[in-house]
Automatic annotation (TrEMBL):
Keywords: Signal. The keyword Signal applies. It comes from the Bacteria. PROSITE patterns: PROKAR_LIPOPROTEIN. The lineage of its organism: Bacteria, Bacillati, Actinomycetota, Actinomycetes, Propionibacteriales. Residues 1-19 form the signal peptide. Residues 62-289 form the Solute-binding protein family 3/N-terminal domain. This is ABC transporter substrate-binding protein. The keyword Methyltransferase does not apply. Pfam families: SBP_bac_3. InterPro entries: Solute-binding_3/MltF_N (IPR001638).
């Protein structure tokens, strides 16, 4: 899925105060995004896996992880606008615990992350969709499936049907894959002689969510993890309908010529899958735990 800029997503914290046709709950309050972070202090070092870590990293004592913290809930800035948080950030910390080293987020623009893998950063964890183009140049270890989802008001009071979109008013964030997809589907509605989809685009996802709660749109369309996160932050005022569409795996990126580090990261990721830590991290961020993969595959082809 296309990355979504998360500027303003922390504004969702105030969504329960929306008025004007909102179906909010009196006096309800959404959790702080900082409160959603998973405590990895209970994750134990696994000596057999830690022994696989290249000496340059083990002696340094820090695993440097490239990320673009602009994509909630995977990786974004906390309310202090400095600290990187999110399920990918928590995952990186948990990997460090298994490997017996600290972790450091090397924050940069998304487009500059991959060229720095193996030089300015040891690995990359930043919602990288696994593609043939990327695996031709890098090793990628799968850990999550992300697709697209529709969200509606709790209990779907307007009986929105995700399989019958023609004539519906749907909110979406500007510049996303989902906006393009809705435009294509709307064109198909017109070609079939049906009413076009009324697509309302907003600059930030928080505005999309606000207008769904307020009733201006009957549904929104976003990355599946973004939709799950909106449900978590709005204290049960929303729900996801229709499941996840067009899911694709994302992967941890390692330099293709670093087989030793690749094995260490793959083994550590599998450990976190097997002991339940990875599922718990996703759950703490409101993401459906079924999105988390059970096998850490190297450069999967499908």
């Amino acid at each position: 899925m296309r990355r979504i800029v998360a500027a303003g997503l922390v504004a969702m914290l105030a969504l329960t105060a929306c008025g004007g046709g909102s179906s909010t709950t009196e006096g309800s309050a959404s959790p702080s995004t900082d409160d959603l972070s998973y405590d990895v202090s209970g994750v134990q070092k696994v000596d057999e896996i830690a022994a696989l870590l290249p000496e340059r990293i083990a002696s340094r004592g820090t695993l440097v992880i490239a990320a673009a913290p602009d994509y909630a809930p995977a990786e974004f800035r906390a309310e202090d606008l400095q600290t990187a948080i999110g399920y990918d950030v928590d995952l990186g910390k948990a990997l460090g615990r298994v490997l017996g080293v600290d972790t450091e987020v090397n924050a940069a623009e998304f487009a500059s992350l991959l060229p720095g893998i193996g030089s300015t950063s040891d690995i990359g964890i930043s919602s990288f969709t696994i593609t043939p183009e990327r695996t031709a140049s890098y090793n990628m270890i799968s850990y999550i499936m992300v697709g697209s989802s529709f969200a509606v008001q709790k209990d779907n009071p307007k009986d929105f049907d995700p399989d019958n979109l023609c004539g519906q008013t749907i909110g979406v964030q500007t510049g996303t894959y989902q906006e393009e997809e809705l435009a294509t589907m709307s064109d198909q509605c017109a070609a079939d002689g049906k009413e076009a989809i009324n697509v309302l685009s907003y600059g930030v996802q928080s505005d999309v969510t606000t207008n769904l709660i307020g009733g201006k749109v009957v549904a929104f369309y976003a990355d599946s993890t973004v939709a799950d996160y909106a449900v978590a932050l709005t204290d049960g005022q929303l729900e996801v309908v229709g499941g996840v569409r067009d899911a694709a795996p994302q992967g941890i990126v390692v330099s293709a010529d670093d087989a030793q580090l690749t094995e260490a990261i793959q083994r550590a990721m599998q450990q976190l899958m097997d002991d339940g830590t990875w599922s718990a991290i996703l759950g703490s961020w409101g993401v459906d735990e079924s999105a988390g993969l059970k096998t850490a595959e190297l450069n999967p082809t499908a």
